[in-house]
Specification:
By secondary structure, the chain is mainly α. The protein has helices at 2-6, 9-27, 31-39, 43-54, 56-70, 73-92, 101-119, 125-128, 136-147, 150-164, 168-196.
Length: 197
């Protein structure tokens, strides 16, 4: 089964999609510090800001699943990566200034919607990839080994960026990394859709 799975482009593309989506998920860990540094919130208010963002999780995941059933999983994945890209670029390119609560909230909501919706979709895309049922377990294993690598590298990458560039600039760089992964995930999803045609 493993040899068969390793020859399937859909599995490798799905692994790239998961890497990009999960990298975005790890970046959500920056939200309390971002609220403190960019919005001037104290620790309690910053924690509340991050908690508010997490309340979007069930709405995003269920909503994305519902829309994916009505339209297509890969189509919804494209929309989610576009939301991530928008949120990453808004903060990353410094278009928000130093104290703009409304644009920061908009960027964060866009990012969190994209991240948590993707978490509800990135294994559902396997069915669209026409992975045979008898090798689904192996395919999920291969995609997971590659896809969850952000657990290894995202913490150190974010730590270096935030330590070397304290304050607003560090968060901008973290969100530029998010934008890069979102762009790669968007490209991988578009290739996935093209390969399946």
């Amino acid at each position: 089964h493993l040899r068969q799975v390793l020859r399937m482009p859909a599995v490798w593309l799905q692994a790239i999609i998961i890497v990009c989506a999960y990298s975005g998920y790890r970046i959500v860990e920056d939200l309390p510090l971002l609220a403190k540094d960019m919005l001037g919130y104290n620790e309690v208010r910053a924690a509340g800001f991050a908690t508010m963002a997490l309340w979007i999780r069930p709405v995003a995941a269920v909503g994305a699943g519902f829309l994916a059933d009505r339209f297509s999983t890969s189509g919804m994945t494209v929309v989610c990566f576009a939301l991530l890209l928008l949120g990453g670029l808004l903060i990353g390119l410094g278009q928000l200034g130093l104290h703009p609560a409304v644009p920061v909230y908009f960027a964060v909501v866009s990012t969190v919607l994209g991240v948590f919706a993707l978490r509800g979709l990135y294994f559902a895309i396997m069915q669209e990839g026409k992975v045979p049922l008898e090798v689904t377990g192996t395919a999920v294993g291969v995609a997971s080994v590659v896809g969850f690598l952000p657990d290894v590298y995202m913490g150190p990458v974010m730590g270096v960026l935030l330590d070397d560039h304290p304050g607003v600039r560090g968060h901008q760089l973290v969100f530029l990394v998010l934008a890069g992964f979102a762009a790669l995930g968007l490209l991988a999803t578009l290739v996935f859709r093209r390969v399946l045609r």
